[in-house]
Design brief:
- It is a single chain.
- This protein has 194 residues and is mostly helical.
- The protein contains nine helices and two strands; from the N terminus they run ααββααααααα.
- A two-stranded antiparallel ribbon has the order 1-2.
- The model has no long low-confidence stretch (mean pLDDT 82).
- InterPro entries: DNA-bd_dom_put_sf, MerR-type_HTH_dom, MerR_fam.
- It holds the Pfam family MerR_1.
- This is MerR family transcriptional regulator.
């Protein structure tokens, strides 16, 4: 963390008060690599906005039923250099898991200076590809997962529970695939400009 950000640093007590995560859990998460170790100033450890953002992400993932192992795998995909804003983006992508469907993509993009036509076009791409992914995954569940569950004696209710637990993994997988595709597209574009 740059030296100029000392004003943003929190003590462990301040961090636990802000995030609602116990000191014991903060230390445990740091030992598992879910949050960085504290910034040392002499013998004291301090925590910055990146610690707060990562703790909030961990708490949100726990709230969605992610196991510790699943949280570790999810967090491994986030670069150590991710800013609190980058991490907040991951939090916002979890909104569909909670049933928050009031995401105003055109309004959000328009607020960033994107023309209404372009913002609407982006929203339509998201909607179309979201429908396509849902249809394809539903077909896989219907033709490959449900027969396997039925043979093992599982009920339709157990299948519904499986699908509910699959949602966070699906969203994380889509985010990872999208980020990789954007990075590949940017690299390809940069290569053509040279």
């Amino acid at each position: 963390m740059p030296e100029g950000h000392d004003a943003d640093l929190l003590t462990l007590d301040e961090l636990t008060e802000r995030t609602g995560v116990s000191a014991r859990n903060v230390r445990f998460y740091a030992s598992r690599g879910l949050v960085p170790s504290p910034v040392r100033r002499g013998r004291s450890g301090y925590y910055g906005p990146d610690h707060v953002a990562r703790l909030e992400l961990v708490r949100e993932l726990q709230g969605h039923g992610f196991t510790l192992s699943a949280i570790e795998k999810y967090v491994e995909q986030i670069p150590a250099t991710a800013t609190p804003s980058d991490i907040a983006r991951h939090l916002s992508l979890l909104a569909p898991v909670t049933g928050d469907r009031d995401v105003d993509v055109p309004g959000g993009l328009s607020g960033m200076g994107i023309s209404p036509d372009a913002a609407q076009a982006v929203a339509e791409v998201y909607a179309e590809h979201g429908r396509q992914v849902a249809e394809e995954l539903s077909e896989i569940v219907r033709t490959k997962v449900w027969p396997q569950f039925r043979e093992a004696g599982y009920t339709a209710e157990q299948l519904r529970e499986f699908i509910h637990r699959l949602k966070p993994l699906t969203i994380a997988g889509l985010v990872t695939a999208y980020e990789q595709a954007i990075d590949d597209s940017q690299a390809s574009y940069d290569g053509r400009r040279r």
